[in-house]
Amino acid sequence: MIYTVRTIAVMFFISCFTQLTFRQEQNGPNKLYPILFNYSRDLYPEYINIPGERRVILEEIANYIIGSLQFEKESEILFLETDNSTRTIMAEAWATAAAYYYGINNVKIYSGGISSSNISTNTIVALEKAGFIIYKTSEKQNPTYEIKYSYNVPPVIVTSKQYNNKSNPDIRYGSIFLCSNADINLPVVKGNNFRTSLHYFDPTAYNDFPEAHEKYMDRCHEIAIEMFYLFYVLKNAK
């Protein structure tokens, strides 16, 4: 069954959650590395600033996850962009950290592109500035990185890859397009049972300009807020 973004169930879910007041969990979040923990904790007051139309999309994604968990032990989501080098890497890192922070253990997160390139150095720097600890584990042309976010938990292993890479899910998963180019040029994603668009401006447009670092940090922050809001909604749906 294909889940659409305009269903009665989704609208019911949204109407319920728009009435929630933003509140911290009484039992506290799981600990991240100190700098990352402080950065993530400070995202909380910014949830209210997410534009309404984007909050709707994020709540639809949460609704898909809740629905899929009724039939499966785990829910899987795949972030897609053109070359899996910037926005999808940020989203995979932040969504994984947010899931851990809010204690959501049964959602698996992946990323991919229509093509593969290599992960932008500016992307790695932006994530490190936010508090992730990142190691390059290979020196090949398309290197692999370990993105660590907390103690004694497995890191996020990332390398630029196509969406249909064997390490990504191939059936019963949700696909979330983070750029319009991939959204347009990949009209059918084999095996997914949910599809939506959550486009972000591409900071690579500023690669040759002095403000490149600032633009990557801005995009990293925007993605962080929205991924943490997504898992905040899931936490409060329990």
What is the string of helix and strand elements?
Answer: HHHEHEHEEEEHEH
Nearest-integer average pLDDT = 90
Tally of contiguous helical segments: 7
CATH class: Alpha Beta
**Beta strand count:** 7
Total domains = 1
Chart the SSEs and their pairings.
Layout: H1 8-17, H2 34-41, H3 52-69, E1 75-81, H4 87-101, E2 107-113, H5 121-130, E3 133-136, E4 145-148, E5 156-158, E6 173-177, H6 180-185, E7 192-197, H7 212-237
Parallel strand pairs: 1-2, 1-6, 6-7
Antiparallel strand pairs: 3-4, 4-5
Give the structure's gist in a few sentences:
The two termini are 24 Å apart. A four-stranded parallel beta sheet has the order 2-1-6-7. A three-stranded antiparallel beta sheet has the order 3-4-5, covered by helices on one side. Helix content is 39%, strand content 15%.
Short key terms for the protein model shown above:
disordered N terminus, Rossmann fold, three-stranded antiparallel sheet, 7 strands, 238 residues, four-stranded parallel sheet, alpha/beta, globular, 39% helix
